[in-house]
Fold this protein.
Amino acid sequence: MMTAEQIVASHKANVETLFGLTAKAFEGVEKLVELNLSAAKAALDESANSTQAVLSVKDAQDLLAMQASLFQPLAEKTAAYSRHLYDIASGTGGEFTKAFEAQAAAAQKQFATLVDTAASNAPAGSEQAVAMMKGAVTAANSAFESVQKAVKQATDLAESNLAAVTQTATPKAGKKK
């Protein structure tokens, strides 16, 4: 059984983790707002420059040429924005994942200690029940670790796919120039 000091320490650690995650979430939101503000400012500047360029066009052929040049960098900018957005989301999500994994490991350790304590205090003749309980705990921990590995593999695959798509899209956008 847990002592009062252990319970207080556990609650204190949980509160510290909560405040840490809250700070990381706000950090992610700040980065997102900063990204969106810089993107909006860049779009406004480009719009002003484009408007000035359109107003200075002398004939339809110049207008068509200028129009084509205005849309070419759009894919690169979209890819860069998406890359920044993904970096912010994955960085913030990574912090949450680390905290979750640490909390899960601590909970598994506490539960294993509780099971061991209960097993050592179990009455004579309950060895089979204790063995079954330990087996169930081991199976649950193995299943949890398998899920964590699968999630990690899926995340790694998604990151590599995003990198491949970004690398493919950026050169194609540059070739149109």
Summary: The chain has a mean pLDDT of 80. Helices lie at 4-55, 60-71, 74-120, 127-175. Residues 10-169 form one domain. Residues 4-55 form the longest helix (52 residues).
